């Protein structure tokens, strides 16, 4: 359900941004809102509270963001409250951000390695990804996982390239189990 909500409303916001030729403006506003909404615990508690009625939440959105955010995005936020989808707002915004980045040719790559990569190695990984994908630039996210033993796992969207030793050992073990000894 949450994916359907984020896609439906995210696509609607994307369409409005495209039709009004305000993609960059909406993109910046949505990114800023994402940071504000995720970083403000009191706001989240207030908006999640069943004691505060929808009309009051709409009014809070209007008063808080009027003049700081475009009326279209305020309208979307209010609509999400009215339809009972406020909790999906971060997902809607994330979906919209992803769509805009795709249009701009910005990929998001998550790279897991067994040990910390040097800056030079990170540059080489990014350069290789730029060579092998259609993206013009990347947002790179690096993490370490010692259980990989060696190699790396790269995730870009729903694509995964796993060259970790852990996975190779698993595959080898699986293949060995399937070998039947001939007597």
**How many distinct beta strands?**
4
Write down the overall mean pLDDT: 93
So what's the overall shape?
Answer: elongated
Classify the helix fraction into a percent range. 55-70%
Oligomer: single chain
Computed structural class = alpha+beta
The helix-strand sequence is HHHHHHEHEEEH
In brief, what are we looking at here?
This protein has helices at residues 2-19, 23-39, 41-48, 54-65, 71-82, 89-104, 119-132, 165-178, and strands at residues 106-113, 137-144, 152-156, 159-162. It has 183 residues and is of the alpha+beta class. Helix 4 (54-65) packs antiparallel against helix 5 (71-82).
Overview of the structural elements:
This protein has 183 residues and is an alpha+beta fold. The chain has helices spanning 2-19, 23-39, 41-48, 54-65, 71-82, 89-104, 119-132, 165-178, and strands at 106-113, 137-144, 152-156, 159-162. It has a four-stranded mixed sheet. Strand 1 (106-113), helix 7 and strand 2 (137-144) form a beta-alpha-beta unit. Helix 1 (2-19) crosses helix 6, helix 2 (23-39) runs antiparallel to helix 6 and helix 4 (54-65) packs antiparallel against helix 5.
From the structure above, extract its key features:
four-stranded mixed beta sheet, 183 residues, elongated, 8 helices, alpha+beta, 4 strands
Secondary structure elements and pairings:
Elements: H1 2-19, H2 23-39, H3 41-48, H4 54-65, H5 71-82, H6 89-104, E1 106-113, H7 119-132, E2 137-144, E3 152-156, E4 159-162, H8 165-178
Helix pairs in contact: 1-6, 2-6, 4-5
């Amino acid at each position: 359900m949450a994916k359907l909500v984020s896609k439906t409303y995210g696509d609607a916001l994307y369409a409005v941004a495209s039709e009004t030729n305000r993609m960059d403006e909406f993109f910046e506003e949505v990114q800023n809102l994402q940071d504000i909404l995720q970083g403000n615990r009191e706001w989240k508690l207030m908006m999640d509270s069943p004691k505060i009625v929808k009309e009051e939440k709409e009014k809070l959105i209007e008063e808080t963001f009027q003049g700081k955010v475009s009326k279209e995005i305020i309208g979307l936020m209010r609509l999400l409250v009215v339809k009972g989808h406020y909790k999906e707002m971060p997902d809607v915004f994330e979906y919209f951000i992803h769509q805009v980045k795709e249009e701009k040719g910005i990929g998001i790559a998550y790279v897991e390695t067994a040990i910390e990569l040097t800056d030079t190695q990170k540059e080489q990984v990014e350069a290789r990804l730029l060579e092998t994908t259609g993206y013009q630039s990347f947002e790179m996210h690096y993490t370490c996982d010692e259980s990989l033993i060696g190699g790396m796992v790269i995730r870009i969207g729903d694509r995964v390239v796993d060259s970790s030793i852990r996975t190779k050992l698993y595959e080898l073990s699986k293949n060995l189990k399937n070998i039947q000894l001939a007597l």
